[in-house]
Each structure stands twice: as structure tokens, then as C-alpha cells.
Write a structure and sequence with these properties.
218 residues; 4-stranded antiparallel sheet; 9 helices; alpha+beta
Length: 218
């Protein structure tokens, strides 16, 4: 059973995760780009005909210098291993390669945005508790759902999509969702369990969510 963290601990964890993601999304340096291109050339890929071999490194540096470093790394390893069917012999042109690197980093941007939103909810909940306002119970439910989403992610569950309302959840469940999916209605997110049965859902208070099975049973 996983121990639920306190709000200060949770806030610190969120900030650490945001910092780590921000570092992964930091711009690639000129040296990083040069190493990437030279590494791909050493692996046997060739400069495309439309790009001057003399100016190739400078052109790729100019196009890729603002792409996220982790996106550049992912693209490098994937391209080196033949992961892009259109680029098995020749490198993409500079602008196309920049688009690929940016695309490879998109999931990191989404993760950072989602975690930042959860961190904001936790901070607001803490503020509401100090004010002892009449909306504090609602904020507690939101925070419980936010913490639950984080715990699910840690044991292999994955975010499916945003879901703005109960009605949307009903319609989405009718169209079909992965078995065991849950709707964290307090934060408007649908999460699905991992395909590996060995991973278990953390034991967290059953607040602010409902499952697809519950929806169908209703």
C-alpha cells in the first residue's frame, strides 16, 4: 500500500517533477546538434541532395538550436535505429528535422502542463484551508483526485483524455474505453490501467472519481 503524502510533500514532489521536465525541454545547444548530425552521418545516413554538404552542420544547427534537448535525443536514437520509415537513407532537411524533434518532445510538454495544473490545485487547496472558507470541502475533493491521478501514473496507469462533464463521461463510456478506466470527475480526467496485470491500483480514498464499470452498471 502506498503512503499518501502530505500537501507540502506533494507540492515539493510536483515542483521537482516540473523542474526535471523543464530541464528536458530546455533548448538544444549548437554542440548538441552537431553531435547529433555527425552521429547520424557516422551511422550511415546521408545529407539530403537539397542541403549543401559544406553548410550542412550550420544549417542544422540554425534549425535545431531551439528544439528541446530531450526531443533531439529521442529523435537521434529513433532515427539511428531506423524508426522513421521515410528517413532510412537520408537525413530529413533541417526544418523537417526540427519538426520531428519538437514532435518527440510533445508528450513532455503535456506532462509538464498537467503536473503544473495539479500543483496549482494543491496550492489553492492549501490556501483555502488556511482561510477555512465554505468551499474548502470541494477543494479537498479536487486535491484528492489530483493526488490519485499522480499515484495512478506512478504505478503505470496512463492518461486517456480530458473529460469536462458527467454527460461527456457517459457518452465516452458508451463509445468504449479501456477496461477498468476511471473518471476523475473532480479534475476532469480519464485514466486507464496498464496492460500488465501485475501492477495494482494504489489504495487511495474513493473520492472525486468513478469507474467505467460503475457507469455501465448504473
Amino acid at each position: 500500500m502506498m503512503k499518501m503524502q502530505t500537501l507540502p510533500d506533494r507540492s515539493s514532489t510536483f515542483q521537482s517533477e516540473i523542474t526535471a521536465l523543464t530541464e528536458q525541454l530546455s533548448p538544444s545547444g549548437a554542440d548538441d546538434v552537431a553531435k547529433c548530425i555527425n552521429g547520424l552521418l557516422d551511422a550511415g545516413l546521408m545529407i539530403p541532395i537539397a542541403v549543401s554538404e559544406t553548410d550542412a552542420i550550420d544549417l542544422y544547427r540554425e534549425a535545431l538550436s531551439e528544439t528541446p534537448i530531450e526531443g533531439l535525443r529521442k529523435m537521434f536514437f529513433k532515427m539511428k535505429r531506423g524508426g522513421y520509415s521515410k528517413h532510412l537513407a537520408f537525413l530529413p532537411n533541417p526544418s523537417e528535422m526540427a519538426a520531428i524533434a519538437n514532435s518527440e518532445a510533445q508528450s513532455l510538454r503535456e506532462d509538464r502542463g498537467r503536473i503544473s495544473e495539479r500543483a496549482r490545485m494543491v496550492r489553492e487547496n492549501a490556501q483555502m484551508k488556511t482561510m477555512a472558507g465554505r468551499h474548502a470541502p470541494l477543494k479537498d475533493i479536487v486535491t484528492s483526485a489530483t493526488i490519485r491521478a499522480d499515484e495512478l501514473s506512478r504505478v503505470g496507469w496512463y492518461f486517456v483524455e480530458k473529460c469536462p462533464s458527467q454527460e461527456s463521461w457517459v457518452n465516452r463510456a458508451k463509445k468504449g474505453l479501456p477496461t477498468g478506466s476511471v473518471f476523475l470527475w473532480a479534475i476532469g480526467e480519464i485514466w486507464a490501467p496498464p496492460s500488465r496485470p501485475a501492477l495494482q491500483e494504489p489504495e487511495i480514498p474513493n473520492e472525486g472519481f468513478e469507474t467505467a464499470d460503475q457507469e455501465h452498471a448504473a
